[in-house]
Amino acid sequence: MQRDTAIETRALKADSFGRISLMQGAGGPFVRRDLGHVPLWLRLPARWLARREALGLRAVAGLADVPQLLAWDGRRLDRSYMEGAAMYQRPPRGDVAYFRAARRLLLQLHRRGVAHNDLAKEANWLVLEDGRPAIIDFQLASRGDPRARWMRLLFREDLRHLLKHKRMYCRESLTPVERRVLRRNSWVRDAWFRTGKPVYRFVTRRLLKWEDNEGQGPKP
Predict the structure, then answer these.
(1) pLDDT at 203
(2) Within 80-122, where are the H helices?
(3) pTM of the prediction?
(4) What is the Cα–Cα distance from 123 to 145, expressed in whole angstroms?
(5) Is 78 helix (H, G, I), strand (E, B) or coil?
(6) CB burial string 142-157: b at 16+ within 10 A, e below
(7) Cβ(193)–Cβ(100) under 8 Å?
């Protein structure tokens, strides 16, 4: 693909950590995260996040229903484009098949030793044109031995976030085991709400003046 001659067809998102655009290249559409307009004082964390995404995508290369890494040169990250809508734009209400497939997809990620870490955001779950689930945005993904205790804790948090969405859109199909998982908060979740989340909110809302509504789309 001749990405150096690609043209932007639509801006998908722009924030303090880069501009995400739908591009058209010689081989078809793809998505680009461009750090070129990131303020100087944020370039280091923006590059760290983009590099983390590139590493996460390399770990799931060849897996269906996740983006495929096309290129990462330290400034621009290109990944394959998947036609679909974010979960909050096309809610899978009552769609048991969607959530079964989503759990299988999550298990495949975990078998590759990848925990996504940001699946509470509905914007990171797609509903593809044929109704299948897809997962995007691997900026916060962790990689490690899938048998390691720490990774298993992160995998459980990924699952809990998926089950929260299932509870929202397909509550009647929750199994007794899934209900127990939802009732049990891990120390990872508790630590995040006590320490990490207040810092995240201060940085994004006070310093960056950025409100993403937890990735659930614009507020009414």
Answers:
(1) 53
(2) 96-111
(3) 0.85
(4) 27
(5) strand
(6) bbeeeeeeebeebbbb
(7) no
